[in-house]
Amino acid sequence: MSRFTNIQWATHTYNPWRGCRKVAPECANCYITTTIPFRMSGQVHGGARVRAGVKALAEPVKWNRAAEKDGERHRVFCLSLGDWLDDENVPIEWLAELLEMIHSTPHLDWLLLTKRPQNWTQRIFDVETLARPELSRFLSGWMTGARPPANVWIGVSAGADQAAALAIPASIHFLSAEPMLGPLNTAHASGFDWIIFGGESGLRARKCDIAWIREGVRFCKANGIACFVKQLGANVVAHWETTDIDEIRNFPTIRDKKGGDPAEWPEDLRVREFPNFARTSTETVRRTAAGPVSDPAQSPACAGGAVQPFQPTNHKP
């Protein structure tokens, strides 16, 4: 976990634990297996989850102070090396402490991405049964939809249950079409505030057709959805919509190993937007009529009373 991350749409990544089981086609070439902690510990997909150390667990407290001091919002991607709604080999106490952390850091926007949105109701209910009163009230307001947390964005992978994710009360709903293995499924896509597109990276990267991303960008524009093209991938292909030979010949060479340099892309794909939102006194965030913005970091901090400082423990799976 670090102050800066290679994930272009986040300020920080946070992994209170790491590891999960492959549950979708997108998982086939999961990058977690290439990370040093995963390889050094001998972890395997579907095996025991590994808890972060106490110091790493407390890092968002520092990020929250910095964001408050700077008058800006930091986006925290959680978990990049697991799934926050994983219910296999993840003690409910771990999730309870993650939610305590989220509640106690109101100047951070938590981007919670999952492939298991169907687990949300049961997992939150289980946390509520053991939570202290303040956190219990926070979770109760979330579960009923009366007070969805202002600093939580709910994300879902494109191959998971998108309808279940949209059913989770949230200030912002986002869809991650990365790795993009085919055209965007638009059955539920119009319900999201933000869509991320990206081709697969790595030596075994599956192809990503530029046409799929282009169609996704157009869909977002037509539906007033913020669009973020993260990368074209390591195995980008192009099905041309033009018969102009010069245009095809002048297509830029993709040298970046992940296809992540916008300067090498066709101009119409150089789109990196964030959802525009306004915070209210009831801690509700809504997309405004102004549409997407380039970066919401300058958005005002959410309202709310005092919260208790986070105190990490070390529960074993």
Helix content: 10-25%
Fraction of residues in β-strands = 15-25%
Low-confidence stretches: 279-290, 296-316
Spatial extent as radius of gyration: 20 Å
Order of helices and strands: EEHEHHEHEHHEHEEEHEEHEE
Mass-distribution shape: globular
Number of strands: 13
Structural class: alpha/beta
Description:
By secondary structure, this protein is α/β, with parallel strands linked by helices. The protein is built from 9 helices and 13 strands. It has helices spanning 36-41, 54-57, 59-70, 92-103, 120-128, 133-144, 162-166, 210-223, 245-249; strands spanning 12-13, 17-18, 50-51, 74-78, 108-114, 152-157, 172-177, 194-198, 208-209, 226-231, 236-237, 277-279, 285-287. The strands form 4 sheets. The protein has a 7-stranded parallel beta sheet with strand order 1-4-5-6-7-8-10. Strand 4 (74-78), helix 4 and strand 5 (108-114) form a beta-alpha-beta unit. The longest helix has 14 residues, at 210-223. It starts with 11 loop residues before the first strand and ends in a 30-residue tail after the last strand.
